[in-house]
Amino acid sequence: MKTAVLTGILLLGLILRTVWLDKYPPGLTPDEAAFGYNAYSVLQTGSDEWGTPWYRLAFTNLRSFGDYKLPMYVFLALFPVKIFGLSEFAVRLPNALIGTLAVAAVYLLGSKLFSAKTALWAAFLLAVSPWHIQLSRGAFEANLVTFFLPLGIYLFLTGSAVWSALVLGLNFYSYHSARLLTPLIVIILLMFKLPGKINRLIFIAALFIVTVPGLVSMTSGSIARVSDIGITGPTDNWRSVADRRFTARQSGLPDGLARLISNKVQTVTSLYIHNYLTYFSGQFLFTSGASEGTYGMLPGRGVLYIIELPLLLYFLVLLIRKPSPQMYLLLLLLLISPIPAALTKGPGYAANRAVVMLPFLILAISFGLTHLIKNKLLTLITITVYSLCLLFFLANYLYLSPSQIAPAMLYGRREALTRVASISGGLEEVRISRSLSEPHIYLAFFSRFSPAEYQMYSRNWPDPTTLGLKFLDQVDGYSLDKYRFGNLNFEAPVDHSVLYVGLPSDFPPDYPGLFRIDYPDGRPAVTVAAKNP
Question: Does residue 210 contact residue 170 with C-beta atoms inside 8 Å?
Fold first, then answer.
């Protein structure tokens, strides 16, 4: 019976994560296109888009746009891209499958920490979780952590030193946040006294061996990415701190006191505490949810169901009344999980960076639910309520996401660049605006540009850091064959026919475009125009 129920839950989770995978979320982010094209490049040439051999990627990471992505997702995408070709479905399929396996991993961890009943509830709740469904439907590497961490912790608790080290070590290559969180979790596991024994020496040795390439990669350009998104490197280069200090001195405060109340340490600490607390706020968890739709998340709805609020609170009540080492471990894991997200810049409420919280939240909610439900009637009522919550979420997701998150997911690039590639055969030049965000990778992805030829061009592209820039699309004038990326320079005279591709704002008002791609709600997304000498 238990096996049949778990199988049904896994099947439900798989369906929710794979049906219409190429359409929802609408659009494709540059990161998704980069993972897909780099997998395609490795399959075709054995190297990534910059010519780095596949066996070195664990030591160097993916240079990509200059953000040095971790390589795990590229390797996961190899088989789907090989089987289904380079497409949105193929590049998103690995995460959908990993998301389904995460349901099983949470079940295993729940059964080890608590009971089979709690574990089944945890599997069901994660399978229908709107937070997890949405992040499992795109090539979002942050979601990989929801599989590797619960499984690695479960294997540790069962005494499987080598397998636990392998899984937690692989997690080190999944997402940047995992590189900070995994060592913290390892320390907690090594210090926490729980039932079951593990050979700590073998575990530590195996973990070190698996993570050596990742440790080497941290001495390369990936450090620049971490510093770029971290709160210790503010966008204004500490200008706000200097302004507050100046204002305080102008108001008559001695310089020493002005420095005491306005300095880098105080600013970073205050920002970190604020960020950290937002991820436990009701606004993030139950009402407004994610701040942006860039990672396929619907803004304006909580990442958890509102029914889960009392269940989460009941877990805390049980923790106070009848504490156990397992409950304390779960609480500690939950408390440290938002640390990486809190250390990053941005508008906050970053559901992708904080998704590592989700398995532990689900387990806490399931523990509370298990102790509340005492009979079959309550079980049936709970399943009915969750089913209704799921139906309401799916209705919102299917009908609102095309209008709400299509712009954030950069909808229209496929439609525009596929048509551009088909009509540009007789042209000498096609100029694609940098405003499309890393337009070269979209062109390469949707036109299936030859990776061998791509690498011939990419090795001659300038390094943005030597120009004082951070990302490739900030460079003006790099090319792939006839395709030039950067500023359109639309007003400059030309001596040959040119095709221009950009946002509507890139063109003069009322300019007669060749064609236009609209968002699903009718707003203009991408404009294509031509100019003759």
Answer: yes
Q: pLDDT tens for residues 183-212?
A: 999 999 998 876 668 899 999 999 999 999
Say which amino acid occupies 522: G
The residue among 186, 53, 171, 119 whose CA lies nearest residue 370 is 119
- Residue 43 Rama label (left phi>0; alpha psi -120 to 50; beta): alpha
Q: Are residues 391 and 365 in the same domain?
A: yes
Q: Are 74 and 39 in contact (CB under 8 A)?
A: yes
Alpha-carbon distance of 225 to 69, in angstroms, equals 9
Residues 109 and 90 reside in one and the same domain: yes
| Gap between the Cα atoms of 482 and 457, Å rounded | 11
Residue 263 included in any domain: no
In percent, the amount of the chain with pLDDT more than 70 equals 90
Contact 403, 519 (CB under 8 A): yes
Identify the residue whose tokens are 């540059």.
30
3-state secondary structure of 405: coil
Provide the 10 A C-beta neighbour count for residue 486.
17
Q: Which two tokens stand for residue 378?
A: 């309550």
Asked if residue 299 and residue 419 are part of one domain, the reply reads no
What's 47's DSSP letter? B
Other Cβ atoms within 10 Å of 187 Cβ, number = 11
